[in-house]
Amino acid sequence: MKRLVLFVPVVLVVVLGVVLFAGIGKDPNHLESVLIGKPVPAFSLAALKQPGQSLDSSVFQGEVSLLNVWGTWCPACRDEHDDLVWLARERGIPIIGLNYKDKREAAMAWLDTLGDPYRLNIFDPEGRLGFDLGVYGAPETYVIDSKGIVRYRHVGPVDEKVWQQDLEPVVRKYREQG
Hints:
- By secondary structure, the chain is α/β, with parallel strands linked by helices.
- The chain has a single domain, classed as Glutaredoxin, CATH 3.40.30.10.
- Helix content is about 40%, strand content about 20%.
- The chain is built from 5 helices and 7 strands.
- The chain has helices at about 1-25, 75-90, 105-115, 130-135, 160-175; strands at about 45, 55, 65-70, 95-100, 120-125, 140-145, 150-155.
- The strands form 2 sheets. Strands 5-4-3-6-7 form a 5-stranded mixed sheet. The chain has a two-stranded antiparallel ribbon with strand order 1-2.
- The protein is globular.
- The N and C termini lie far apart (about 70 Å).
């Protein structure tokens, strides 16, 4: 019995060591998505600015775009906002917003005050589409190809470095493929 009592803690320490060692060097912002290579999940949600307008996955057809998950309650979303405005205005990148678990009035005031980088915004107050996308939290940004297929997922704020190193190469690749 004494040997068993000594053996269990040793096994637990070894298992914990293996788990911790496996995580060394991994990027905490890189979370795999089961949707990579699959269509954006089907949805029917209202437009943020036009509550009577229903939007669906067809908004992702026709050109490569970014889908940016954001909310006014999210400090990191505020951090990335100026960079999104830059991408939309200076680089001409089509960005579709997913206003996630937010209040319509707060979101519209945010865009009026800080600028609106979004071609359109999907209003998802209950987080249904966010759930279907596998959103862990905001901000998250997806590259969607011209056929509505999810090609890449970035967790965390987008800035110029993230754009150049992670997102732009994927956008360029799928633009070239048509």
